TrEMBL record, chains A, B, C, D:
Keywords: Transferase. PANTHER family: PHOSPHO-2-DEHYDRO-3-DEOXYHEPTONATE ALDOLASE, PROTEIN AROA(G). It comes from Ruficoccus amylovorans. This is 3-deoxy-D-arabino-heptulosonate 7-phosphate synthase. Residues 1-66 form the DAHP synthase ferredoxin-like domain. Residues 88-341 form the DAHP synthetase I/KDSA domain. It comes from the Bacteria.
Length: 344, 344, 344, 344
């Protein structure tokens, strides 16, 4: 949809516009209003260069896209059909719960094993644990390959599926060799398109799911879904969308909570939404409220940081991990809200 | 807390700083660290001029306030004690529900009377209805004094308490004469301090409550509570805090939902939080999710736009009012979540 | 422009849509694309109720407005013609400079008189000075009617035109009696529509100009211009648009600087843009950079806080007022940049 | 600085706090105020785990950091000394200008060669040109290794230094083999710490500079500088900070312009600031205003998209590239403003 600066395009301007869209297989339909004309683009608007060339015309005030910038992620795509099974849960039939520490401490593997057992007993389906960590400061702990073995051992002991974040292709190779169940992409890499594409390609046809966090930027819904499209179009449709808070907040939370974006994602896409309230609010006391709110907004589940003894943890655990006892209560209550929510 | 640009203040700088804070009855305590010194202000930091003068010193990098900019609204103030009763509800013992149309249509009073009756049957405690409306465009409907009579008549017919927005002192005089139960201050006037002060003073000692919306600005928590302090310090402690979404949103919602701010308000203040999900999300289909999320975040209740026939409404009703049937279900479910939430 | 959720509306849906827009004198034109249809609204989209009713249809995904929500402020309106003269300056032919303290200290009138004289000598055209002040905390200094006499006396002594902020109708009455030259509306009242309307009506046909600050909210351009439309449509076209920073900033500035919005305002409206860098950045050391940047973005002038002895000032002066010496240099440099800017 | 929820810590709480900070070599100093105590942390606060553990205590309301989360980037670090020479320009003695197309079209190398020549004639110092491009949609043009040869050929023909963006380690290897002069890290990878670290390490001791864009997120100043610290601490201090707009904007710009952040970066760090106005505003007509504003805010130079024939370009060129003629004028004017700015 082209909105000109003046009430209508001159014949020469219209000709130029038609020529541009014609190169991309589109046509123009003029809409004659009482006071002004606007110009609809018929055809596929998903040509960035076409749109950029139209925006570059100084007699054009706005170019509004009607189509979304993704196809496979769209709620109307054929991918919307079919069951989505993960860790024994049929998503959409019951909620999915992922829990575990922010960061695995390689010096204290027992803390992780005990947490893993407690997550299982609390009703969690998938065990999370950070092997490598993106940290704001270069001088902070950045992770350790040895933690991957601890994660695998915990899977062996508990039977829980496992989830960890990868930050580059070296990490990716290691977790694929280990047969990870869920690969997590963090907020800082959420728009790292070469990495998204590689993950999609290397897990194509496998059982591995990909948990894609929302970009820290307050990424618009369409940009978030377009990032997921990189993974899906490269071959892996088992993507989970994970809001986790946006801009840093001044007001007592770590980030601006965005549990509410769940409703918008659900309106536009078929993909499951698994919310991360821990990074959103950033303090343990606020996590249960945010996790339950996520269920009220219609989330398919949550991923919540949990530690058998938060104050002994490293990474974000001391401030934002909840105890397994709180997790157990939370899962019970989340099931109640999930059920209430189905009627709307 | 004064943080200097250099590792420490010179003796002359320190003397200047001490002189400034001394004028306001404060003292400086130097904190000697390994690499730098910082300077604590002992006494009451709530002197804006003192803080501004410190910030004006070019050798000062930051001045961090420790105290909050309000006293009566603070969770530690003596106002935190005591029961808060409104429309027969003891707030904190059970949730409070306010519902009704965005705008009363003075040409169709029966639509309002029927809605009022339906709100009562659905379990609402207070009836809302806009008499005057702040509209973005000067050419849109701006309200009508005649609608106040309709609101009063609905109270007489149903026995429900009533709530409407005032935008200036003329409105205020009229609603006080009418014995309004709850005066609403909208987002656009949320920092209109002369109006806040007048409302506080003119309702001092009365039974009238004041529902203060959060400023559209993404007002920080402290600024929101300081605005409420204007009302309370002028004489009326019956203030209700009402988040209603912040910046306009690009993504399908009307505003950025801020139901989540409830937890922060509760951590800092004793005041009841009554969330407005209708203005937050701005479309009827998204309202129940947001209303239930508000309860999950710990709200004391909600105010939700409801209309017996939304598409016949004026103002925002056609897009964001829910039907009385949805309201009834929502109130039932909200009670369940409110109860679950008490355990955290 | 109506974008349906499904690729096209059913005949019954189309009929409903046509009926709604028909009530407001509009028609629908269907645009048939390869994969989907969209529906243009022919006629005047500035009916909020029509747009709300369309948004209320559950089969409608989006309703995009093509028209701006204002008429008189539009760059195409007939108001764009004609000269704009203020304080001896023809706006658009040379830049306009407003300067003076944040707040007039009624206990020290000489500080104000000396500042006024210094503003004149530095090349300022209009003298600003706060008589009444909106303050975050109810316990801070709120202004004093006596300061108005000091402002008038300074005008008498220097011959400079004068500018002050009004917050309510009592203030308005007083400044109109005093024959103020420029009435300022602050960020907190920037969407206080009853006040805007009254100011527009009571200054209709007079020589008084109105300096309207941008709402603190990060008010979108259209909302800012629509607020100005309240003043202009009530009778006074002598409106000046004043960006002054938006959301509070965490990063060392007082607010997020928005000098850049100047270019967008200029693209959409004929109204002069007078930027306030003092409230934008909030510290004297950053003011010159922001003031010069405003000129580079194409502003018609600036309003900058200046004080003969900033550290003796009250209000924001100690932190953000520049000295008259800096003002003089700044005005000289601003003229250079203003001139360079005309060629683009 | 620890601010407790209650007016003071109990002895047991204080002991726990002292124990935690003691593990990291810090001590606590109690500051006894009239109404409350606060607790200063003496020692190095840059231990994320220590800060997280303190935040995890439920009797702690806030933990304010005094130190910045970087050392080498700090304006007080020894790196602030010494000359910074790039492409024949001594930064700080005269402004630096980078220009060229958004994206090199491998099918039309002559367009690039002609643009390169025109950039040189307009007074540019470094030639930019995108070889690989992060695009929102996976279906858009993503770049081509062949474009790197074109870039190198343009360097050979003009003698200009060259700059291009890398998105992963494959790109990095190729540009290092080619002896690139300036490596660009785009907004989407601005917090991709493994990549930042690798670039820093692999260019350690070389003449290669690194242009680090500000993260799209509205990255806070400290996070931006901490990201640069990854590069510098890995061995390469030749880092250039590049603001390029933040959140997507609704209002006619592509992003929210952030030229203003220049002043904050300059107050905290010694690193040169080279602003990108093209991505900030996103339309050619707005670029000169933003580029000149950047100089007014104190930038050391700019990087601006320029194309010999913008409408023939690919990538963002058609909408945001300026012509070489505009570039030439812009560089002349920028030199004037740069010079004016030095006096403040």
């Amino acid at each position: 949809m082209i909105i000109p600066r003046n009430p209508r395009l001159t014949p020469a301007q219209l000709e130029e516009v038609e020529k541009i869209v014609g190169e991309f297989g589109c046509r123009i339909q003029t809409i004659v209003g009482a006071e002004r004309c606007i110009y609809a683009i018929l055809g596929d608007e998903r040509h960035e260069t076409m749109m950029n060339r139209l925006l570059g015309l100084d007699y054009v005030a706005r170019v509004d896209a009607i189509d979304s910038p993704y196809k496979l992620m769209d709620i109307k795509s054929s991918l919307a059909e079919g069951k989505r099974q993960l860790a024994g849960v049929e998503i959409g039939k019951e909620p999915l719960f992922i829990a575990g520490p922010c960061t695995i401490d390689p010096k204290n593997p027992n803390l992780f094993y005990e947490t893993a057992q407690a997550v299982k007993e609390a009703g969690g389906h998938i065990l999370r644990g950070g092997v490598w960590k993106p940290r704001t400061m270069p001088y902070s702990y950045q992770g350790d390959n040895a933690a991957l073995d601890i994660l695998l051992e915990a899977r062996a002991r508990t039977g829980l599926a496992i989830n960890t974040e990868v930050m580059d292709t070296d990490h990716l190779r290691l977790v694929l060799e280990a047969g990870i169940d869920v690969i997590q992409i963090g907020a800082r890499n959420a728009l790292n398109y070469p990495l998204l594409r590689q993950i999609g390609a290397q897990t194509a046809g496998s059982k591995t799911a990909v948990l894609l966090k929302r970009g820290r930027p307050m990424a618009p819904v369409d940009e978030f879904l377009a990032a997921a499209e990189y993974i899906v179009s490269a071959g892996n449709p088992k993507v989970l969308l994970c809001p986790r808070g946006t801009l840093p907040s001044m007001d007592g939370y770590r980030n601006h909570p965005d549990e509410s974006i769940t409703q918008l994602l659900k309106a536009k896409s078929w993909a499951p939404v698994i919310v991360d309230p821990s990074h959103s609010v950033g303090r343990a006391a606020y996590v249960p409220g945010a996790a339950l709110a996520a269920m009220a907004y219609g989330a398919d589940g949550f991923v919540v940081e949990t530690h058998i003894d938060p104050k002994s943890g490293i990474g974000d655990d001391p401030k934002q991990s909840i105890s397994p006892a709180v997790l157990a209560t939370l899962i019970t209550d989340a099931r109640v809200i999930w059920k209430l929510r189905q009627k709307y």
